[in-house]
Design goal:
Largest sheet of chain A: 3 strands, antiparallel
Number of strands of chain B: 11
Structural class of chain A: alpha+beta
Oligomer: heterodimer
Strand content of chain B: 15-25%
Order of helices and strands of chain B: HEEHEHHEEEHEHEHHEEEH
CATH architecture of chain A: 2-Layer Sandwich
CATH architecture of chain B: 3-Layer(aba) Sandwich
CATH superfamily of chain B: Thiamin diphosphate (ThDP)-binding fold, Pyr/PP domains
Shape of chain B: globular
Distance between the termini of chain A: 31 Å
Radius of gyration of chain A: 12 Å
Number of helices of chain A: 2
Radius of gyration of chain B: 18 Å
Helix content of chain A: 10-25%
Helix content of chain B: 25-40%
Largest interface: A-B, 27 and 36 residues
Number of helices of chain B: 9
Structural class of chain B: alpha/beta
CATH class of chain A: Alpha Beta
Number of domains of chain A: 1
Largest sheet of chain B: 9 strands, mixed
Strand content of chain A: 25-35%
Chain lengths: 83, 280
């Protein structure tokens, strides 16, 4: 059951970008809404075959949470801290 | 089960991932509802055990399966009478009715009419994806004129229903239209709706990339989402006359009606006590 909530946690300096790998359905909305283009579709796949989003430019994250608010599957969230 | 997402404590996480297609706007709406509830529960204006969900049939009504609150999944279009029944028996409950445009504006159209007429103390959230999504993308009363659906291959010849005008005309206490492309605004509308007495109606423009977007040339979730975002017009305190609902002229979102008249339960209790007093 632990793997169902396995989180890819990437520090950005001021924030942590967290992606719940197994929940991502590769819709691409987080990639689209991010104003600083932090995210992109990854190359790794989860158990359902979806290429979950990964932060490719984490240092650009401004912590606006648009990805978190626009994710239909509760798969991505931002935590403040790490700076 | 381990908690990952901050909203996981309001979710039945064993049922995730949701049954919705990738990029469906309903998940965004559910997130907004849960964040609004979270704010209400944290500030103490709502108790978690007093929140109930009711939904009919359809992808949108399936939303009642995911929040970790009391919830009921009832027959098609009949979520409003069910929720009102709960509310009459247990007035302390805050009943949230979620449904799609098919469930609330079409099949349950009569129930929404009379719930609004009574100013029933409910929060009604209607996710509007402009078609019947679950059954294969047929034309719905909310389909904008001229658009292709699986049952209107030459374009939809019918006029669309503007549910905001309907709700305002019948006297709902709160009428707003939001969009899943404008999440902080939508969250604020739902937060406000949760604090109203009487009927609070929130129409939510949503996306169905699989059965609506695909047929009109916006195949990917991002294409349809960005297209809807372009066609949404945000207005501050718009009048009901300004509530345009059209694919060409755009969809006006905002808070159209905000008044504070006594809700049905209050009036009912007054009449009940009067009747009891008369008998004794």
């Amino acid at each position: 059951m632990g793997s169902a909530t396995a989180v890819l946690r990437v520090p950005t300096g001021k924030y942590f970008i967290n992606v719940v790998k197994e929940r991502c359905k590769e819709c691409g909305l987080c990639v689209f809404v991010c104003p600083t283009k932090v995210l992109d579709k990854g190359s790794e796949r989860n158990s359902r075959g979806y290429r979950f989003a990964v932060p490719v430019r984490p240092e650009k994250c401004i912590g606006c949470r648009m990805c978190e608010y626009s994710c239909p599957d509760f798969a991505i969230f931002i935590e403040v801290g790490g700076g | 089960m381990a908690v990952a997402h901050p909203l996981d404590r309001y979710l039945r996480t064993d049922r995730l991932p949701t049954m919705w297609c990738p990029g469906c706007g309903l998940g965004i709406l559910l997130g907004c509802i849960l964040r609004a509830l979270d704010r209400r529960i944290r500030e103490g204006s709502l108790r978690r055990e007093n929140v109930g969900f009711a939904g009919g049939i359809g992808c949108s009504a399936r939303m009642t399966l995911y929040p970790y609150f009391d919830s009921a999944h009832v027959i098609h279009g009949r979520a409003i009478p069910f929720a009102l029944g709960v509310k009459i028996v247990k007035p302390e409950m805050k009943m949230i009715v979620v449904g799609g445009d098919g469930d609330i504006a079409a099949i349950g159209g009569n129930h929404i009419l009379h719930a609004i007429r009574r100013n029933a103390d409910l929060v009604v959230i209607m996710a509007n994806n402009m078609i019947y999504g679950m059954t294969g993308g047929q034309q719905a009363p909310t389909t904008p004129r001229g658009l292709y659906t699986t049952t209107t291959p030459y374009g939809n010849p019918e006029r669309e229903i503007n549910i905001v005008k309907l709700a305002a005309a019948l006297g709902a206490n709160y009428v707003a239209r939001g969009s899943v492309t404008h999440t902080p605004l939508l969250e604020q509308m739902i937060y406000k709706a949760l604090g109203k007495r009487g009927l609070a109606f929130v129409e939510v423009l949503s996306t169905c990339p699989e059965l609506f977007g695909r047929h009109i040339g916006f195949r990917s979730p991002v294409d349809l989402y960005s297209e809807l975002r372009k066609r949404v017009v945000v207005k501050t305190r718009p009048s009901v006359e300004e509530s345009d609902y059209s694919w060409e002229r755009g969809f006006v979102i905002g808070e159209f009606v905000d008044r504070d008249e006594p809700g049905f339960i209050e009036v009912l209790q007054e009449y009940t006590s009067r009747a009891r007093g008369g008998a004794g």
